Amino acid sequence: METILFYFSPTHTGQKTARAIARGLGFETKEVDVTLPQQRKAFMAAVPAIPENAVVLLESPVYGGHLNGVARQMLSQLKGNGQPAILLTLYGNRHYDEANKELYDLARTAGFRPVACGSFIGEHSFSDKIATGRPNDKDLAEAEAFGKSIGAKLAGSWSELTAEQIPFNARNDNPSAKAAALPKEAIGPHVDEEKCIGCGSCVQACPMGNLVLNTEKGKAENTHTACLRCRACARVCPVQGIDFVGEEWQKVVQRCFMGFGSPARENVTVL
Known about the structure:
Blueprint: E1 2-7, H1 13-25, E2 28-33, H2 37-45, E3 54-63, E4 66-67, H3 69-75, E5 84-91, H4 99-109, E6 113-121, H5 137-155, H6 177-180, E7 190-191, H7 201-205, E8 211-214, E9 219-222, H8 232-236, E10 242-243, H9 247-260, E11 268-270
Parallel strand pairs: 1-2, 1-3, 3-5, 5-6
Antiparallel strand pairs: 3-4, 6-11, 7-10, 8-9
């Protein structure tokens, strides 16, 4: 048997957790990363066929209580034929809300049989003060143990999960959702041209191709086209020359911190 990981992971929380689950499974592993624009272009040009003996892991970050739209678009291209699927969502300490149910429906529509579902915590993309440093060592150990349990289930006569078993929360009253209603220019990455050294790290890390390198200035530039507010750009900048600093953005971050900055939530797994 082999494991195929499909993930959209701008800040690598989903990637780390998916890899830990795969370690626990113990099968030969193949990764299909659809985070960056060039990776998605290659994926769409040749959507991989799923071997009959594969177990697939489908991962998406949770944005505003739902699957990320880009991840949903990519994963919906897959075609299964009854292979077992592991459903994995990553959320920033607020709630997974409807994301697991959406991923379950997507997997079944694609022809997979969901065998396990996990919602794990990752550091919130808006602020490193919410779920700081997660997934941490404890989270990754839990993910690996989860993988071992899935492997044991698959070794026997297993049954797929029912819709009623999928962790679900119909509420969607979260402070971070207010960010989506603000103008793109109001909350987007701001390049500090005095600090920016034109290395292009942020340009390469942006999952939406929102950032470009202005060759005349030798500086990164925000095009205000399609920003997810994942802050992958800020996390990779070696000189702290780019971040989200607008007044409206700071209000959103403060609402998030007050609403769900603590206590630390636990990971949820279902077999």
